[in-house]
Design a protein that fits this description.
- With 227 residues, the chain is an alpha+beta fold.
- 51% of the residues lie in helices and 17% in strands.
- Strand 1 and strand 2 form a beta hairpin.
- The chain is elongated, with a radius of gyration of 58 Å.
Length: 227
């Protein structure tokens, strides 16, 4: 009978690979795959053990374990932040509107000032143009009065009447005539003298002018007063 082990090669005990049961030398070094740094075997083993401990101690997240008061506080804070963003946008919008309104008002103010200046200049030019013929009449009266002084008075009276006519066209009315009742709204009493009637204009030192209900210049007069 043939022995089944006769054709098998002899296997030595030393040829069988034994698991590495020897403790690692803590002085040996290796390369850390994560950091790429050189570490000792002991440091590597300690780091792996700490990682396993941390993974084992990490509890699973459970929303039901959250404190309701804390969750409500977080939600309130998020609402306030959102409200703050909305208020900031509204504030920026109002600032923009205010800036545009200020620019429009400044433009309106400039236009109004320019229009007022133009109107005043036109009024001055129109008044000066209306008075130019008076200047011409005064010049002619002075020329005639130089040759014959007796002719000066009629010429100046004509000039005076022409000026009053021009004032009437401009809307001015003369105030303060002898015999008028004294009115402090239009008259300024320079002197009070005895007379037959109270508050009667007996003499005019300077004619006044009014434009509607607006006093341009008061008339300076002498007023009578009964004894």
């Amino acid at each position: 009978m043939t022995n089944p082990n006769e054709n098998q090669p002899d296997i030595k005990q030393s040829d069988i690979t034994q698991p590495d049961t020897k403790p690692k030398d803590p002085r040996l070094t290796t390369i850390d795959a994560d950091s790429g740094e050189t570490v000792t075997e002991a440091e590597l083993i300690e780091a792996e053990a700490m990682t396993e401990d941390e993974d084992g101690e990490m509890p699973d997240f459970d929303p039901s374990n959250l404190d309701p008061n804390m969750f409500a506080g977080v939600q309130e804070m998020m609402d306030k932040l959102q409200k703050a963003d909305e208020l900031e946008r509204e504030n920026n919008d109002l600032k923009g509107r205010l800036a545009r309104l200020a620019a429009d008002f400044e433009s309106f103010r400039r236009r109004t000032a320019d229009d007022a200046t133009d109107a005043r200049n036109r009024g001055t030019a129109e008044a000066a143009e209306a008075l130019m013929p008076v200047y011409d009449d005064v010049s002619r009266a002075l020329e005639m009065g130089g040759a014959d002084p007796a002719k000066l008075i009629p010429g100046m009276q004509n000039v005076q009447q022409k000026v009053l006519t021009i004032f009437e066209k401009l809307g001015l009315q003369a105030t303060g005539k002898e015999g008028d009742t004294f009115d402090p709204q239009w008259h300024e009493a320079l002197q009070v003298v005895p007379g037959e009637q109270d508050d009667t204009v007996v003499q005019v030192f300077q004619t006044g002018f009014r434009m509607g209900e607006r006093l341009v210049r008061p008339a300076r007069v002498v007023v009578s007063k009964k004894n």
